[in-house]
Write a structure and sequence with these properties.
about 200 residues, 3-stranded antiparallel beta sheet, about 55% helix, about 10% strand, binds zinc ion
Amino acid sequence: MITRHFGIPVTSPGAILRRERDLGTPLGQETAEVLQSGGLVPDKIIIELIEDWLRLHGGHGFVFDGFPRTLPQAESLMSMLTKLRTALDLAIWLEVSEETVRDRITGRLQCAECGFTTSSSSAQFANRPVCPYCDGRLERRNDDDLAVLQTRLQEFRTKTEPLGAFYEKLSMLHRIDGNRDRDVVFADISKLMEDKTAK
Ligand SMILES: [Zn+2]
């Protein structure tokens, strides 16, 4: 949505690593297991990915989604940007309650055949849980996902939460309530970005 609206490239380490996994590269295979269990991929790998991406695509603005997730990642980003003679404009913290995360996960439907995922609240699939791509059966995957969620929350509390204070100290942090509808959240993010680009 951000790319479409602002013409700024967005990347997330998760998306890069999923693509690597689908391509069957050594990096993709190495990290797939960690991602699947809800753990965080080692900082060194993530930092290299971002550094490469910035060099290729970061010339005219960029948005990172899900990066940095740890203090060492945030510190590396600062030194990368110093080298590139650029700086961050905004750090946006999407606050989402555990309850919301849990609801979103348990409300997720996945195709048993091709892996396509959608939400069970999506009206299109509520009555007829069939995959639009391959006609496979759409099913819920609860237990697995909830165990993964526990690991992810633990990682979040110990490694990601301290980033709030880090960016607060730099007067860059904006907290947005992410428990609301996608469109409302996007409108808030857009407003922050518009205020920045208008300057
Ligand atoms: Zn399918």
